[in-house]
């Protein structure tokens, strides 16, 4: 007769093994992924959107007559306004665009408003008595930008019956600082739909 | 009789002019405007086979046409994709840009998602990121 109050050893061992296995499966696993693959974890603004916008805008701008002429126009990056309902670090988008344009060797960038304080600080530091005056950067030699880059990102979000649709529109403009004319503009649209 | 000869001479001249224009259009090492190097390309199918690469799960979407031109000193590529199935297909694609030495002229592009409706055509356009890029490959990856 089997004593039910004391589980036989035959059952206890497999049970313990199964528990150990289950505990192992539940453990977190971390792996490196492809930073340029399509990311669809949620339908919020993500890395793929950022990279696609940067690439699309850069390639378009390289074709703009002011850039394609090869005169190395000097550009300053201004704000990209986030008009969406979510938090987007628009500085990351403009940073990526700047990286691609700079690497293309067709545009030069002047210090922008956000980095101006640091620039002035460094100039002042070099003008101090601690530095060799002959080898220090002089004040009054900075080059102003001929163009300014600004833009905005907007979104339309709709949700109904388990379906969420997000539409993003990123618009970028290159303005001539001297005459105030718009020399280039383009936009990139992205639509993402999530259904349960 | 003289008139007949004149017409024949004019016809031959017109034909020669036509052939001359076609030959002048294709530079050596180019086919449909696209760089081909030493590869033998005698048709659009050959060109597509040379330039399109499938990675991962193979998609049923086919590149059917490809044309290239220069915008300034940058290569511009137009590729016609065709989904002849009766289902919507999702793929991702990217271009790989190659320099004169056969090395990568630019870092890997981002995979770009693309939706193609059933029985539809779509034209992809791309411009090289740098004038160092003298050749390219279109890479397709199924998302099904």
How would you characterize this protein structure?
The complex is a heterodimer of chains A (196) and B (144). Chain A has five helices and five strands; from the N terminus they run H-H-H-E-H-E-H-E-E-E. Chain A has 196 residues and is an alpha/beta fold. Chain A has a five-stranded mixed β-sheet with strand order 2-1-3-4-5, covered by helices on one side. In chain A, strand 3 and strand 4 form a beta hairpin. The longest helix of chain A has 18 residues, at 9-26. With 144 residues, chain B is α+β, with helices and mostly antiparallel strands. Chain B has helices at residues 2-25, 44-51; strands spanning 30-31, 34-35, 52-54, 62-71, 74-83, 89-98, 112-116, 120-127, 135-142. Chain B has a four-stranded mixed β-sheet. Chain B has a three-stranded antiparallel β-sheet with strand order 4-5-8. A two-stranded antiparallel sheet of chain B has the order 1-2. Classes of the chains: A alpha/beta (196), B alpha+beta (144). The A-B interface holds A 34, 36-38, 48, 51-52, 55, 58-60, 62-63, 68, 70, 100, 103-105 and B 71-72, 74, 92, 94, 108-113, 126-127, 129-130, 143.
Helix and strand pattern of chain B: HEEHEEEEEEE
Q: Indicate the radius of gyration of chain B in whole angstroms.
A: 20 Å
- For the secondary structure, the number of strands of chain B is 9
What's the total helix number of chain A?
A: 5
For the largest beta sheet of chain B, what order do the strands appear in spatially?
A: 3-9-6-7
Class by helix and strand content of chain B? alpha+beta
Order of helices and strands of chain A: HHHEHEHEEE
- Distance separating the two termini of chain B: 70 Å
Helix content of chain A: 25-40%
Helix content of chain B: 10-25%
Uncertain segments of chain B are 18-23
Q: Any low-confidence stretches of chain A, pLDDT <50, length ≥5?
A: none
Approximate shape of chain A: extended
The dominant shape of chain B is globular
Return the average pLDDT of chain B rounded to an integer.
87
Mean pLDDT over all positions of chain A: 90
Q: For the CA atoms, what is the radius of gyration of chain A?
A: 28 Å
Class from helix and strand fractions of chain A: alpha/beta
Strand content of chain A: 25-35%
User: What about the largest sheet of chain A?
Assistant: 5 strands, mixed
